[in-house]
Amino acid sequence: MRLVIVSGMSGAGKTVALKDLEDMGYYCVDNLPVALMSKFVELLEHNDIPYDNFALSIDIRNGKELGKLENELKKLSDNGYTYEILFLDASDETLIKRFKETRRTHPLNPGGRVEEGIRREREKIGFLRQSADYVIDTSKLLTKELRAQVENIFSGNTEFENLYITIVSFGFKYGIPTDADLLFDVRFLPNPYYVEELRNKTGRDEDVRAYVLGDENGKKFLEKLYDMLDFLIPRYIAEGKNQLVIGIGCTGGKHRSVTVAGELYSHLCHDEDFGLKLEHRDIDRK
Question: Maximum Cα–Cα distance for the chain, whole Å?
């Protein structure tokens, strides 16, 4: 029997994760009262239920009973049951935006400021995040990307490390991505903008790519970039980092940065130790 406890911040995507687990064949129970947890798990094991995998969603909706969760989890362990905790999180700014978009009130501060509800919720469920086996930060994730991460963890046989990498190409003339952890300036590479037949193309086109990488400096830069990130990423994983945004910038964000970002994505995409996506922020600007 595989038992998954789904929890996290209100608005972070717990409903999406639970629905995805259900689609994967898990028997799912939403908002199970904490006091019933150990008894419920016993019933699952000793009754003829045609499921091997179970997911229980437990969160702040349990109110004061949530304070008893640590004892209930200890009971499970003492009785020989194993479980995994999936914690969904997002930045305060993202959660506030989602609450405003849906016009919902926060369950801990109905009728009051969402910010205060989020602060109190973090205090009350912080112990779950610290003890979680898997933490997914959904701040930058689309629904389909969240589903892909859940499926990677619970339907595949690969080991999931709590790191999701976003590679974003951009143009310095439009500003630096504010959430970038690492920034690389590739304006030293040959600029296709000054080649008439390449000007209206992008770094996705093969002839632009060949022009940018045909320079010896481009090849050397990629070698050094790969070497550095191959060194850093496992150490970020070991340190517990769960989001890494790598910015690759050129002047306008259409040629050089797009090419280099694409090459980096191709280099990293075969590694199953982390999630990965590629964004070209300014590629469609005129």
Answer: 73
**Which amino acid type is present at position 168?**
V
CA pair distance 150, 51, nearest whole angstrom? 19
Could you tell me if 142 and 188 lie in one domain?
A: no
**Tokens 């999180």 map to which residue?**
89
Range of the domain at 242: 164-280
Give yes or no for residue 213 having a pLDDT over 60: yes
Q: What six digits make up the tokens of 277?
A: 């996506």
Task: Report the 10 Å Cβ neighbour count for 117.
Answer: 22
The two three-digit tokens of residue 197, written as one number: 């037949």
Distances (CA, A) of 179 to 34, 80, 245: 37, 43, 7
Q: State the pLDDT confidence band at 162, using cuts at 50, 70 and 90.
A: low
Start-to-end Cα distance in the chain: 55
Q: Are 279 and 165 in contact (CB under 8 A)?
A: no
Which tokens is 253 given?
């964000």
CA angle 31-53-51, nearest 5°? 105
Angle at CA 136, nearest 5°, toward 134 and 140?
A: 165
Separation between Cα atoms, residue 229 and residue 250, nearest integer Å: 20
Q: Which residue carries 């952890």 as its tokens?
A: 181
105: left (phi over 0), alpha (psi -120 to 50) or beta: beta
Distance of CA 39 to the CA centre of its chain: 33
- Whether 271 and 175 map to the same domain: the answer is yes
Answer yes or no: is pLDDT of 153 > 60: yes
Number of domains the chain is built from: 2
Token pair of 130, please? 């610290």
- DSSP label of 104: P
Domain boundary among 107, 125, 154: 154
Q: Which amino acid is at 28?
A: C
- 23 and 126 in a common domain: yes
Nearest in space to 62 (alpha carbons), one of 124, 153, 135: 124
Average pLDDT of the residues in 83-93: 91
